[in-house]
Amino acid sequence: MNRNKNYTLIAIILLIGVYGYNFWLEKEEDKKVVYEGIKIKGDTNVFFLPSSTTGQVVHHDGYSLSYNEKYEQAEWVAYELKKEHLANRNFKRPYFEIDKTIKTKAAHWKNYKQSGYDKGHLCPAGDRKYSKQAHDETFLTSNISPQLHEFNSGIWNTLEQKVRYWAEKYDGIYVLTGGVLNGELPTIGEEQVGVPNYFYKVLLDYNNGNPKA
DNA sequence: GTCTAGGGCA
DNA sequence: TGCCCTAGAC
User: Fold this and answer.
1) At a CB cut-off of 8 Å and minimum separation 6, what does A144 contact?
2) Nucleotides of C under 7 A from a protein CB
3) How far apart are CA A74 and CA A134, in angstroms?
């Protein structure tokens, strides 16, 4: 591996269980509202969705994201991981495609080629195995970020598997993932895709407030 | 064996 | 774009 680059990747893992907001926790139908809140376009930062600093929030069927044009990647990706989303089907790895829903144009995957970095999923393909459509959707360039292979297939991968375990255990959770995009970051490719130094995940369990860390 | 990936080649 | 092989971490 090329050691000329400054490797200081650290994962910051934030696991937050929330007790509050009883007014939408207690009723079953409210779950529905939350779920729809993710998908309905035009809704402002409904419920758990964070605010966007770029003003460009895009909703896909399987997840929502806020795209940061400067760094050519999403500042966050949010999705719900339901128990029934968990599946073991194995889809063929599709081709990475440019996310056409990004108005300012998402980066091309060629930026990542031979950059030494992985095209790391923010919304993991492994969390969207309940349908091929949802699975393939994670292979949009708006859903990936440059990650070291060692990091992506190592501790990050482990974390994603734990997320799946928790989704099973707590009957569904919300997941928010992103890289820390600020300041001057190293870039790759012609479009200068920023390379985050840190990645984070925030988990929200809406019907069982067991805080975990 | 299961996940995450890169890369070569028709 | 599909197919198939390789590699690391757990």
Assistant:
1) A73, A96, A109, A112, A119, A120, A121, A122
2) 1-4, 7-10
3) 18
- Strand arrangement of the beta sheet that strand A173-179 belongs to: A10-17, A198-205, A173-179, A73-81, A64-68, A57-59
Give the H/E segment covering residue A187: strand A187-188
Residue identified by tokens 């925030």 is A202
Contact A34, A160 (CB under 8 A): no
A121 in active site:
yes
Q: What is the ipTM of this complex?
A: 0.81
pLDDT for the residue numbered A12: 36
Domain ranges of chain A: 39-209
pLDDT interval class at A54 (50, 70, 90): confident
User: Is the minimum distance from the CB of A100 to strand C below 7 Å?
Assistant: no
Q: What is the pTM of this model?
A: 0.76
Q: Active site residue: A60, A85, A121, A135, which one?
A: A121
Q: Which residues contact A47 (CB under 8 A, 6 or more apart)?
A: A24, A33, A34, A37
Of chain A, the percentage scoring pLDDT greater than 90 comes to 35
Q: Does A64 contact strand B, using a CB cutoff of 7 Å?
A: no
How far apart are alpha carbons A38 and A42 in whole angstroms? Answer: 10
Which of these, A167, A89, A80, A172, lies nearest to A132 by C-alpha position? A89
CATH of the domain spanning A39-209: 3.40.570.10
